Amino acid sequence: MDNAGIFDVIVIGTGLTESITAAAFAKAGFKVAHLDENVYYGGDEASLSFEEYINWAIHAKDSTQFSSISLSSSDALPNSRQYSISLSPSVIPAAGPLISSLVASGVSRYGGFRLVEQVAVYSNHEVKTVPGSKEDIFKDKTISLLDKRRLMRFLVFASGDEDFEARTELEGAKADMPFVEFLKTTFSLDQEMAETITYALSHCVSPSDKALSALRRLRRYLRSAGRYGHSPFLIGQYGSSGEIAQGFCRTAAVAGCVYILGKEISSITRNRNFDESQSTPTYTLTLSDFPETITCDLIVSSESRFPAGLLGNTGDILRIPPAFPAAGGEIPFTIARGVCIIDQPLSFVSRQESSSSEEGDGQESRPTLDTGIFVFPPSSLSTGAASSAVTVLVVGEGTMSVPKGKWILYLSTSINTAVSPEQLLKPYLDMTLSLSSSTDTSIIPLFTSFYLQTTSPSSYTTSSTKSSLNTSSRPDHSFGSSLPTILLSPAPPNSPLPDSGDAAAVNAEAVFWEAVKALKSIKASKKLRKTLEDQVPPTVIRDEEEEEEEEELVEIESFWPPVVNEEDDEE
Amino acid sequence: MADAASGSTDKSVQVKLVLLGEAAVGKSSVVLRFVSDEFQPNKEPTIGAAFLTQKCRLEDRVLRYEIWDTAGQERFHSLAPMYYRNAQAAVVVYDITKASSLEKAKSWVKELQRQANPNIVIALAGNKLDLVQPSASPSGTSSSESEDEADDATATPGEAPSSSGGESESLRQVPREEAQAYATEAGLLFFETSAKTGEGIVEIFTEIGGFCDIFDEKVFEYLYLPVAKKIPIEHILAATRGGAGRPGAAGGRAGNAQDAAVNLEENANKPKDACNC
Question: How far is B8 from chain A (nearest CA, A)?
């Protein structure tokens, strides 16, 4: 325990991106400390119990990211601890980078996942099930034969292997055309179907979303369908992102990462003699109510958590541009969110559909759902003012994030102007509760809460080309003094629903490689200094440090080292 | 979308067991003794594995323990809620030569009662029994299992009226009777153990298993949401974490929401819809 406080990397913030990064560092053999000022894991993507959520709502009012927070009541519901309310509700494409990282890192063993049962869209004043597969399209009696043909043609195009750029369908300026228009003109789909594809299959956010990026996203989703079941999307148990972050943190801990939660960083000191002695760490941190100081060569922090005020000179900071979405993604900066808890099941099958369906024969009630997504295309609701699509994610007890007989509805829409999130989202909530009630009466919520979440735009001011880290906005770091020693990881996009987890995984990998590069340069420059010093009177260099250095310069080949199957050690 | 892997049909029951206790009381050593019947005197902190598994035969059934170690996250009170989720059993370890470690153990028991499944079976284990036993221990060398943790085992002579006699008994800081009384009051199973000699280790796990057996699967059926929610364990386990051939993964409950549970490691890319028109 001699070098207990000495780390290669200190990671600040336990959001999903940082947690994945920390796990990768620890598994690669670096000495890592992972800090969070909160007593809970997950940062802005945490999963909170009901009481914790209330607490969060009361305290988040001071933050720059969250505003206009309202609570219908601050009294706790019974079984508070059985709720896992997600601050970053999302679903996970089954074949995306997050799932790959979960499997490759072994973290998937810690978490349960389930399929999103159903996606529905608000169309012509009704809830309409969105066909999730070709089978569904065939069975769907509300689509005419001609439309089925057109839809199939489009789906074959969208899910194919060819680059979209190479396709004649996208010639001209069509790649930049709004997606709905593209679908109507190129594939002769009617408005309703085009909207369904745009908002409920491709999860576009606004009517101006461009065809190429929408197609790329849709292709990822279509390829996810069938991996674990017919839905392309999974949702993690116990609040998804926050729980998954905990899983990565545990994996990091198992690999030796040290966890210190609930402590604020009270000072960060850039060590002045950094240039003089090769063994001096770059930074020394002190934490409030924590006796020991901790040191590191490199700091990796979430952008929102970095206590920049503690540091005078910010010249050593490298802001890692988001590596996801790869290209052309239009990311909203402010999103209005709503959380609603109900105690009656919802049904995403219209009354018409359920009465006409074969299985519905002899059954009075409509089929209820546990997990589903309900989408209002922009301007589809006459009483609603949202100019972007409004999505409602429903999670029930199957996700283990609510007590039995309760459901959480997460509403979200991106906004351009300052509005009251409650005023904006309330009509959509009301419509959801009345339309998809499984009985004839509208459901009365037990609890509602609304807020605005703003993601710092600076994360997204990168060029829309495939962001190559080498050509990032980094100033030319000449050897020596201006090595980046603080890396800020980008915040995940707050919409669309299926992208934040994948973005976290992709961004974490980008941060990881950049950090490995930075650490190598730091070590190399120290080593060079050391050799220079060695020619002058030899200073006392302890063996252990030399060894450490050798160890760290070992080539790292993959983001995740192969997982050892610990299950085989039984007799 | 019946995804259920046709698992093997052996009658083994999985038990998630979490370890708790102050640093350096020998949590990992207890597990290591149980799982591989080994003892490493200079055991590094934490165990370096996601969790260890060990089968334990108990009359006609096989318990498959999935043992979670704290991975050091308890050191700065940073254990994630995930750690406690669905744990059916817990072993809270203290060091009988260190009175403060029992106090710490009590606070972990409280934490378990607050965070974990209310039906959880908790065992209290006073470890390092070899340190207070006369030199006739089977290992020959009576040297402590914590030579490397000498500062933990600071001797306080004259304490602890001994129940079994022996000169080493003076190292004992927690009288057996005191811990036993606390365990009885708090409804815990109680053991004194030595990971070094193996004494009392297997007993912890068989007794926990026996306790579960008395409840005849009720403990396993009612998980986490104890009163209202009844989900067969096969579902939870299949849903919670993966692995082909999980016992009972095929036992579906018709029309239940659990049908959509997914095992990520079940990597079989199912063929997409075959139609190509």
Answer: 15
Report the domain count for chain B: 1
List the domain boundaries for chain A.
9-49+239-325+460-569, 62-83+112-130+230-237+332-454, 133-224
**In the structure encoding, which two tokens stand for residue B105, read together?**
């153990």
Cα atoms found within 13 Å of the Cα of residue B59, Cβ hemisphere only: 7
Between CA B54 and CA B39 the distance in angstroms is 16
d(CA A453, CA B73): 31
Domain of B159 in residue numbering reads as 13-220
Does B225 contact A404 at a Cβ distance shorter than 8 Å? yes
Only one residue has tokens 């009075």, namely A364
Model ipTM?
0.79
* Cβ–Cβ below 8 Å for A260 and B76: yes
Inter-axis angle of helices B201-214 and B27-36, nearest 10: 80
Domain spanning A9-49+239-325+460-569 has what CATH number?
3.50.50.60
Model pTM above 0.90: no
Chain A: residue whose CA lies nearest to B32 = A569
Looking at CATH, the fold of the domain delimited by A62-83+112-130+230-237+332-454 is given as Guanine Nucleotide Dissociation Inhibitor; domain 2 (3.30.519)
Identify whether B50 is part of a domain. Answer: yes
Q: Which of A258, A405, A570 sits opposite B55 (nearest CB)?
A: A570
Distance CA B92, CA A380 (A): 57
The CATH number assigned to the domain holding B101 equals 3.40.50.300
Judge: A110–B76 Cβ closer than 8 Å, yes or no: no
List the single residue in A with minimal CA-CA distance to B5: A228
* Yes or no, beta carbons of A370 and B52 under 8 Å apart: no
Q: Fold for domain A133-224?
A: Guanine Nucleotide Dissociation Inhibitor; domain 1 (1.10.405)
pLDDT one digit per residue (tens) for chain B, 277 residues: 333 333 444 566 788 899 999 888 988 889 888 888 878 776 665 555 667 888 887 777 778 888 998 888 888 888 898 898 888 899 999 999 999 999 999 999 999 988 888 888 999 999 999 998 875 444 444 344 443 333 333 333 333 333 444 556 688 999 999 999 999 999 999 999 999 999 999 899 888 887 665 444 444 443 333 333 333 333 333 343 333 333 333 333 333 444 567 777 765 444 444 343 4
Residues of A in contact with B83 (CB under 8 A): 250
B229 in any annotated domain: no
Tell me if A569 and B262 make a contact (CB, 8 A cut-off). no
Measured between beta carbons, the chain A residues lying within 8 angstroms of B85 are: 238
Strands (E), A280-406: 283-287, 294-296, 298-302, 317-319, 334-342, 372-376, 390-395
Question: Is the CB of B229 less than 8 angstroms away from the CB of A135?
Answer: no
